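This follows on from our talk about sequence and fold. Go ahead and set the record down below:
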Amino acid sequence: IRRSKKLSQEKVAHDAEIDQAYLSRIEAGRSVIGLHMVQKISQALGVHPSELLKDAKLEPIAVGEDAPASK
């Protein structure tokens, strides 16, 4: 999305108020982010947050009784 809009990492990181190196790790899939960060980046890109998630490879997480027992 960023490249298609011809935006630099520096510009998006600045607008999202995050470090450029952090944005680089996010884009490379080396950082896990929460919904708040998805919202900040989507606002910086001028798109709905769902646009950032539509091609994401999400793995289901276990909750409740299906969750692994904690040690």
Remarks:
- The chain has a mean pLDDT of 89.
- The helical segments are 9-16, 20-27, 35-45, 49-53.
- DSSP finds four helices and no strands in the chain.
- The CA atoms of residues 42 and 49 lie 5 Å apart.
